[in-house]
Amino acid sequence: MTEPNTLTNIKTKKSEPEMDLLFEIQENYLERSTKYFEEAINIARQINDKPTEARILGKLADVFDKLDDSTASIENYKNSCEIYQTLDDKSNELKILMKLGKIQRLAGKLNDSRDSYQRAATLANESGELSAEEKCYGNLGIDHLDNNDIEKAENWFEKALNLSRKLNDKKNEAKWINYLGQCYHNLGDFKKAISSFEKAILLAKEASDKKLEGLGYAHYGKTNFAENELSKAIENLEKAVEITHSIRSKEEEARYSGLLADVYFASGDIEKAKNNYEKSARVLKSSDDKKAFEVQLGKVGTAYYEMEQYQKASKHLKKAAGIAEEIDKDNAMEWYGKLAEAETKIDQNEQAIEHFKEAIMLARSGKHNEKQAMYHLGLGKIYEEMGNTTDASSEFNRALKLAEETEDKKDNIEVLIALGRTQYDLSKYDKALSYYNEAQKLAEKISDIESQIHSLEQQAQAQIALGKPKQALTAYKASLEIAKTIKDKSAKIDAVQQHLGNIGNVHYDNGEYRLAKKHYKEALDKAQEIDLRLYEGKWTGSLGNIAIAEDNIPNAIDYYEDALKIVKHLGIRKEEARWLVKLGYAYEKQGSINRAIDLNEKALKKLSDLDKEIEEEIRINLGSEYLQTGDYSKSIKNSERGIQIADDLSLTVQKGTLYSNLGQAYLAQNKNQKAITSFEEALKIAQKYDEKQSQLKHLINLGRSHLKSDEKKAISFFRKAVGIASKVENKEAEENLYIDIADAYQYVGRFDLVRKNIEKAFNMAPTKERKARWRIKLGDMLSKGGKYKDSLTEYEKSLEYVKSMDEETKGELYAKMGLMIQKTSSAKDQVEEAVKYLEKAISIAEEYDNKQNLCNWRTAIGSLYMDLERWGKARNIIESALRLAKEIGDKNNEKINYSNLSKLTRLAEIQKEKDDLTGG
Predict the structure, then answer these.
(1) Poorest-confidence range of 33-37, 665-669, 826-830, 909-913?
(2) Which pLDDT does position 834 carry in this prediction?
């Protein structure tokens, strides 16, 4: 390496060869070389060596170019050029002007660049340097193309092309034709653009220039993309990528991969788009082009977002936003906005709020009001989801104001609907309706069919909330008519089937099942027409709901099973869980409780993401079903979990049902105080919503909970319940409540009031069967109080209605008659009568194979035959009763019959002794 002290020799000898030693130093010490060049320039000036001064100024400009100091580079090129001009050295002036034009273009000084190239072109023309003249014309074309001055660019490229043909330079001919193709592309003349690119590719192949060939295919693909010829665009861009990969032209490969990714993205092949964006980003990461890297990184994040891989999307978008903040604020705004959207999808609401605010700030500083409105809308949606209606409304209002300023009617409509939703969530349905109406009018004004339909749907929901089903139907029918005007056949059928289903829903909620069924069937036909499997499942299941409402359980089961098959095939676990729950409810209605439990438990397992609204329904069902099977612990567990969910989701009405189930389970476990607490909570909720039937149910349960501990309280609750039953004209409940009150009076021994209340129930009973039931009930109660004669009287009165009774009830009445006669009389004729009643009871029990009753009545009649001293008959009956007691595990009757056998043996012995004494 040349030592720095060489300067001393230069200063003393001032010889040109020794000055050249400085150029060797600059190759290794760019930063330090500027000092040496400047000293060399000073020496050249001292000795008035203009050619050397001009040459070194040019070299110094080259160094500043390499150091990315365009200002210093341009200044030194200009100084060099001026000296060559004064020296009339056209050849060197031409070279410097071409370098100056290039650095001015890179610095963004296109007017200066054009001036430099035009001067250079004139010099080249005068000196007959066709190659340099050609390059100047080409560069002038590039400058005008960059400035979107297409006609002038085309003119310069044509001049450059003519010279390249004169020089028989295939490579440059391909280059300028390629640029002409870009001009035609920008003018929208895609046919001429494609023709140019095809020629450029052929010439590049002739010149064996792979880089130019790849460029031709890239521009060809770009034009295909602009024409929406996506398959051709992919074909040509893949060739461009393949060629640049083969020559290891990494930056071009990265750029073309990015273009290819854009086409794949537009075609809907997001996976391939993502792969190509990643490929492009990997190469660009190690390049100097930070902006290109940032763009590809952001597009990788966007692709992951479309693939619903929101965690990965967030990671890439965050990196892209961080880089863009330093070099491109507009891109940073875009990436922060998309990042916030991704974060909302994975419940990172705090981070999403922060990044929407970043996007809003950048949009405000860049005066992008339309984007700012969109980000305020996104921020409002997060607050809405979090239940912060006040902040949501505030953000939506800001969005509305900005949208109005930009006169973007589409954004206005979306914001108006969002504002309507916030009012709806606040239960301000009239105000919500006014926003939806405004949105609809605006959508109608700009002929936005989709928004008209959406705003009408929202109106319908608000009308339903206001208790106006007719107005809701009007809105849905209006949206249906608009849906029928959609030009795209599939889109039309899709929209129509949805609205037919919505109309069906209103009729269903209104109890108009025939009309609901009609619309669900029409919706189902439309869904099947274009293979909308998800909606096919939905409307099939809705027909199951109709079948439940019509108490046609077998049909309901068939519909629900069909709906279940559809969503199972689609792999939608949430919908699968929903129809499993419905199917379980149908089986519960059918009385197949264990099957219902199995289906609800299966549905619970399907909710891997725990959709709380469906889980709530499952917990209510399981609480009720386990209660019916006597598994009170599981009933309690499910009801308590359901209450937790109801609290989380603010589902107050459902809490009432859950507290009721919980109370009944506790009551069955004799945990009366816990039952009372649960029923009290259920009652509070029913009173809050003025649900009279629910209040009635909870008051009855409270009465029954107090029955064994505080009869006065029990009677008080029952009497309150009677008041409500009378008010809502629920005569059956009122009738049964008089029996409950009678039960309570029985506990305190007030048989006068027992009789009085049962007489009230008897008088209200609409059928003979029910009247008989209450006469028997009164007899049972009197019997428990030891009033056997009064009890027998009531049983006898019941015989008046015996023809209205079912056979098993008759059997039980006959048995009670026989037993009561046994208790009230020992007269032989009365005992004979008791036997007759018990024999009738036994005959019915045998007919219905009711082994428990058969065992009870045989045990009783065995004792009667002993009283009648019919020892053989008694023994046969008692032994039969004993065998049956053992068979069914009835220890009490087994003990009685063993005792009777023992007594029978002793009585037989006594009788034998008597006979022996009397000679009988």
Answers:
(1) 909-913
(2) 87
Q: How far is CA 669 from CA 597, 672, 673, in A?
A: 20, 8, 11
Tokens coding 21: 């030693």
857-877 average pLDDT score: 87
Q: Nearest to residue 625, comparing CAs of 645, 642, 610?
A: 642
Short-list 181, 187, 178, CA closest to 214: 178
What is the rounded distance in angstroms from the CA atom of residue 3 to the CA atom of residue 10? 12
Secondary structure (H, E, C), 182-198? HHHHHHCCHHHHHHHHH
Cβ contacts of residue 488 below 8 Å, gap of 6+?
Answer: none
The answer for residues whose C-beta is within 8 angstroms of residue 756's C-beta and 6 or more apart is none
Mean pLDDT of 683-708: 91
Cβ atoms of 185 and 177 closer than 8 Å: no
Helices (H) and strands (E) in the chain, counts: 47, 0
**pLDDT > 50? residue 883:** yes
Mean pLDDT of 75-100: 91
Query: Cα–Cα distance between 310 and 300 in angstroms, integer?
Result: 12
Record the tokens describing residue 843, joined without a space. Answer: 């005959």
Q: Alpha-carbon distance 875 to 17, whole Å?
A: 146
Place of tokens 């660019």: 153
| pLDDT tens by residue, 218-250 | 999 999 999 989 999 999 999 999 999 898 888
Q: How far apart are the C-alpha atoms of 410 and 418, rounded to whole Å? A: 13
Tokens 């599981």 found at: 634
Looking up tokens 């990528």, which residue turns up? 241
Per residue in 476-532, pLDDT (tens digit) is: 999 999 989 988 888 899 999 999 999 999 999 999 999 999 999 999 999 999 999
- DSSP assigned state of 22: H
Q: How many CB atoms lie within 10 A of CB 800?
A: 12
User: How many angstroms from the chain centroid is the CA of residue 671?
Assistant: 41
Taking only Cα atoms into account, the Rg of the chain, rounded to an integer number of angstroms, comes to 48
What's the rounded Cα separation, in Å, for the pair 855 and 865?
Answer: 15
| DSSP, res 572 | -
pLDDT of residue 917: 64
The answer to whether the beta carbons of residues 367 and 379 sit under 8 Å apart is no
Residues 268-279 pLDDT 10s = 899 999 999 999
* Ramachandran angles phi, psi of 655, nearest 5°: -60, -35
Indicate the residue type of 196.
S
The full DSSP string for 653-669 is: HHHHHHHHHHHHHHHHT
In order, the DSSP letters of 460-497 are HHHHHHTT-HHHHHHHHHHHHHHHTT-SSHHHHHHHHH
pLDDT in tens, 420-449: 888 888 888 999 899 899 889 988 888 888
What CA–CA distance (Å, rounded) separates 488 from 478? 19
Contact 646, 616 (CB under 8 A): yes
What's the predicted TM-score (pTM) here? 0.58
Residues 6 or more apart whose Cβ sits within 8 Å of residue 595: 584, 587
Give the whole-number percent of the chain exceeding pLDDT 70.
95
What is the mean pLDDT of the segment spanning 284-300?
A: 88
Do 489 and 463 touch, CB atoms closer than 8 A? no
- Which amino acid appears at position 231 of this protein? S
Report d(CA 338, CA 313) in Å as an integer: 9
Q: Which two tokens stand for residue 458?
A: 């929202």
Q: What type of residue sits at position 381?
A: K
Tell me the C-alpha distance between 606 and 578, whole Å.
9
Tell me, what's the pLDDT at 218?
93
CA distance 830 to 812: 19
Cα torsion angle, 71, 73, 77, 80, sign: positive
Backbone angle region of 710, left / alpha / beta, with phi > 0 → left and psi within -120 to 50 → alpha: beta
